[in-house]
Design a protein that fits this description.
Distance between the termini: 67 Å
Order of helices and strands: HEEHHHHEEHHHHEHHHHHH
Number of helices: 15
Low-confidence stretches: 356-365
Largest sheet: 3 strands, mixed
Length: about 375
């Protein structure tokens, strides 16, 4: 793996620089075509801001990969994972198309879900899927059920990343942290595919962060958040060697804990707020102000403090994820994961209780 260190470092730098430079061009284009996110009662920003910044992230992610293919060692990295790379290219094209369409014209939940499912099916058909369930030394073959679970997982992660893109730089910062954790896990597992993909993603996100940090000059939009979600979902179940991928709660899954848990909680709340089954399912994918970042912004009255709190919890889960893939640190890893979960639940529901008490006092007055 050491022989690849220089190509990977060059790839990281190239992705960061390309993304940073490209964002300026994308910002101007977004302003010209009217891809502007205007403030409203659901959104935190106070000024109209261009979106479609995800195009810069995508270009920063992909263009250096093509350039570095000319390097002998880099070409060696690519050639070992052509099947996976083709799957990501095919499914990513669908997701990027959906994101751009949504940023420009808007798309309803059923259309998004349909395209996301198609992209997930492409990934699963090329080997991104769970084959077994493993726990306590017991292994159960999933068969066709593994593919179904994998499609659901991929679609869920795509939406989880999309949902946390609610305040300046939050999705960018959380995704950088998860990508770095995935990269470290990939090194430990000798998972060449994930090392390359996460190096490129982390680099492109860091280049974009300069434009996206509060107050954001441009948003990534759905073109960015959906694409990032697809990559993280793919690498969370990529096989580092030719062996079955086990469905276990650990490693990459723990790194994704915050956006996944937040999405589960919010979707459950949305599901119970409608009458008919069809309306409930559609409402699960509609935007509102129930997410963790909305709650923390209301609590602190500060976007910066909310971002810092969420990043800290994400960091706990990321460290937990890395430690759980090492046999001698598994217990420490799961312990830190539990701490992250407790902190997240405390911040989310402690504030809710305080909010209820304040409302009760106001009614009495």
């Amino acid at each position: 793996m050491l022989k690849y260190s220089i190509p990977l470092l060059l790839l990281f730098i190239a992705c960061a620089v390309t993304s940073f430079i490209t964002t300026a061009a994308v910002k101007r284009i977004a302003e010209e075509v009217g891809a502007i996110d205007h403030p409203n009662e659901r959104k935190q920003h106070l000024e109209s801001t261009p979106r479609m910044g995800g195009l810069a992230i995508i270009f920063g992610f992909g263009f250096p990969l093509m350039l570095l293919a000319a390097n002998t060692h880099a070409a060696g990295l690519v050639s070992k994972n052509l099947t996976y790379l083709f799957a990501v290219l095919a499914s990513g094209s669908l997701i990027v198309g959906l994101g751009v369409y949504d940023d420009l014209l808007g798309s309803d939940a059923p259309k998004k879900f349909l395209v996301q499912t198609a992209a997930a099916i492409i990934l699963v058909s090329f080997g991104f899927h769970f084959s077994v369930v493993s726990f306590g030394g017991v292994t159960i073959q999933l068969g066709i059920l593994g593919s179904v679970v994998s499609v659901i997982w991929i679609v869920f992660v795509i939406n989880a990343v999309n949902f946390i893109d609610g305040i300046d730089s939050l999705a960018t910062l959380v995704s950088i942290t998860i990508a770095v954790a995935f990269g470290v896990i990939a090194v430990l597992r000798a998972d060449v595919f994930s090392i390359v993909i996460m190096t490129s993603l982390a680099g492109s996100l860091i280049g974009f962060y300069r434009w996206n940090r509060p107050p954001a000059k441009i948003f990534m939009g759905d073109s960015g958040s959906l694409f990032i979600g697809l990559l993280l979902a793919a690498c969370s179940i990529a096989r580092p060697i030719k062996s079955p991928t086990a469905l276990i709660v650990g490693g990459p899954m723990l790194a994704l804990a915050l956006p996944v848990l937040d999405t589960l909680i919010v979707m459950k709340q949305r599901f119970g707020s409608e009458t008919s089954l069809g309306a409930r399912i559609v409402h699960m994918f509609n935007a509102d102000r129930r997410h963790f970042h909305h709650i923390l912004v209301e609590k602190y009255g500060s976007i910066g403090k909310a971002i810092l709190s969420i990043w800290f919890i994400t960091l706990l889960f990321a460290i937990s994820a890395v430690l759980t893939v090492i046999d001698r640190t598994k217990i420490a890893g799961y312990t830190i994961g539990v701490v992250g979960l407790v902190v997240m639940v405390f911040f989310r529901y402690w504030f809710r209780r305080g909010d209820v008490r304040a409302a009760a006092v106001e009614r009495q007055a």
